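User: Sorry, what's this?
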Amino acid sequence: MDSVVTEDRPQADDRFDTARITAAIDALAEKNAGREDVFRSAMAQLLKAEMIAARKVAQAVLLKDRHGRRCAERLCFVQDEIIRILYSAATRHLYRSHVRSGEERMSVVATGGYGRGLMAPESDIDLLFILPYKQTAWGEQVAEAILYCLWDMGLKVGHATRSVDESVRQARGDMTIRTAILETRFLTGDQPLYDELVARFDKNVVQGTAAEFVTAKLAEREERHRRGGQSRYLVEPNVKDGKGGLRDLHTLFWIAKYVYRVRETDELVERGVFDAQEYRTFRRCADFLWSVRCNLHFVSGRAEERLSFDMQREIAVRLGYTSHPGMQDVERFMKHYFLVAKDVGDLTAILCAKLEDEQAKPAPVLSRVVARFRPGGAKRRRVPDSDDFIIDNNRINLAAPDIFKHDPVNLIRIFRLAQKNNLAFHPDAMRTVTRSLKLINTGLRENPEANRLFMEILTSDNAETVLRRMNETGVLGHFIRAFGKIVSMMQFNMYHHYTVDEHLIRCVGFLQDIERGGNDEFTVASDLMRKIRPEHRAVIYITTLLHDIAKGRPEDHSIAGAKVARRLCPRLGFNAADTETVAWLIEQHLTMSTVAQSRDLSDRKTIENFAAVVQSVEQMKLLTILTTADIRGVGPGVWNGWKAQLLRTLYYETEPVLTGGFSEVNRAQRIAVAQSEFRAAFTEWPEQELNAYVARHYPAYWLKVELPRKIRHARFLRASEQAGHKLAINVGFDEARGVTELTILATDHPWLLSIIAGACASAGANIVDAQIYTTTDGRALDTIAISREYDRDEDEGRRATRIGEMIEQVLEGRLRLPEVVARKAAARGKARPFVVEPEVTINNQWSDRYTVIEVSGLDRPGLLYQLTTAISKLNLNIASAHVATFGERARDVFYVTDLLGAQITAPTRQAAIKSALLHLLASEDDAAKPAA
């Protein structure tokens, strides 16, 4: 039987006035009768104008009510109405069939994300045109008329035209098509045709294939997370595809829809998958993520899914977040975001648990290696050392539902037993743990047994994995309340890649790597870990977990963190002396990193000052280990061989001062050892040439440069000099840090650093660190690391060559740098969204020979050039420079003298230098400030 769409008169709706627009299109059809192209073009223009107006209203409503889901539903409704209007126009005005055959039927269906009935402002539209049999001329014409009009409106449309048979056949073989059809929604046309597709899909595709679908979707999710960076706590998350984002919620619903055959999420409560509280969480997470995504699209004007730093502040303001003492508005917004991402992870675990119970699939273990040696046996058995827990399919579960009420210490014990017996956690057990958090009260926090178990967890294998589970369930934040305050807290800067809690837990993981040894990254720290006093093993573990615990407070986090440690450590079983050591380490946890990276380590005063701070070799050992784990835990590419070498140099330079050994002898010995290491590793040259080369470098070079770099330098110097180059540049690529390294050999020149910095600025290259050395025969050997701009090494190499040519032209007087740099600065794009308060410190206490100028401010291309030029214009000689960047913050330290080689002691002269440099730092600061 032929079935045609009934033409009800469209109803007026405040979201989209379909009746008025349909009438306008009918008038256009009448006016342009016989001129089809003109009619189509006029219709597309009319609908585009109406769509833009409707989107403006949607954005205004979103800004007012901040309800993302409602906005997504509204935008979807507008899109639905446009497609219905187009189908009606195509079948009534363009391709009206007076005698419709059985083949001239069509159902227009929304699929994929659009099929869910929710649309972000810049989302693609996915359409399926369903036909009864094969394609007909009429069907092709109608589909084309709709699609061309949508494209003319500037929309991105994915589409397919298939018969019911074809759809079913392809869905069987292709998981993507199967998922798209799972989410279809009827829009317009022939309803019985759509109903036939749904019935056939259910019967011929879905039935009996639930396990296959679930496995495929979870594997897809794992792969997506792997590509995007595993952690859900990355500080620039992807709202759609990131861990804990909308796609994870969609995957949940796809699986639920497929397995339980539900159409709406609230039906999952009836099926017993979620309880009412969990369903409310599901809705709340979806609402929040949709608010973020819709605002992200509106602000960027494109389908932007990454919540980048420059977007975060704008979205925070649009969502109504305000600043509190110690936390910016943007940090409060991102904390909320990460808490939502965590909830999405919990919901996924609950659904997977339900499915696992039904499918009884094998469960993972904490460490698969041990699993291979574990004997088989009954699926459910008692956990050794406890009657309260059972092993259920290699996972720890509860022997009875009330074991936490009966003994609250079990809330800590469950994690220790899982760790000790290498068991994964049963999601039902984790669910009960989360629901029992109110049992974690002062009594439990002060309980000696609970605190002993916690310290065992922290200092045993797999501590990182177990602490992360304790954090995800909320136990860690309730047991150590100060930790609860930094859960999901992000720091609005480019240096830290993870939220504070995730950073601390990762640091514990790296501390275990250091203790295990065998990793070349951590040679010094691993060696020191074996040499600390046995009772200090627990000290370094608790310090690593707590070192950033006071972030987000108005007070300096190192000082506030030390206070937290003094209150907490006695409870955890530490005596007064060890508690004081933990507090001291937290208070000083940034000191070693700062001194190593921004002071002249060959200056005796630097070492004496550092020795005065660390006081004993034991405290310095602990601080070195903590600093290594902390830098490594910041994020990928932050820890590198150069930083490791600086820490090693600082440690071994300071050790003799603390032990009372005669330091000059000790230093001479270490220089000799470094030179012997070099000779043993580098056997390419005859001895005479090697001796002459070794004598060309000052002692500081042998102590501060890592061995592989020394070998590269030797080859580079020889090749350059044999080729007769006055200036030579070697280009290297450091993949882990995402930087290009330029090693420059030139005749030393007072303005050389400034010229190099200016050439980099002119090429748009941002300097992230610099190592500057001079040979005894007056050659400068400088290694400059610049941020990568291109993906391909060849392109980066060409940019480096350009910088080299520019340095040569400036040294030969053929190019004037100030003009080139000024042109580049004028062409620069928009400023970054960060604010860094400029600071300049000038003092004579860090060196006996030099005045030390420390400059800190917002990094920008050309900053080092501007600073070095300004210092030279102030009639100061730069003896050494220590250049470092921490995300968006530049910290540059210059050791200077006046033109006669003396320190700058006059207060008026110091004030003039400070004022000039502050003015330089602030000159671009106004441009850098984001709109509030």
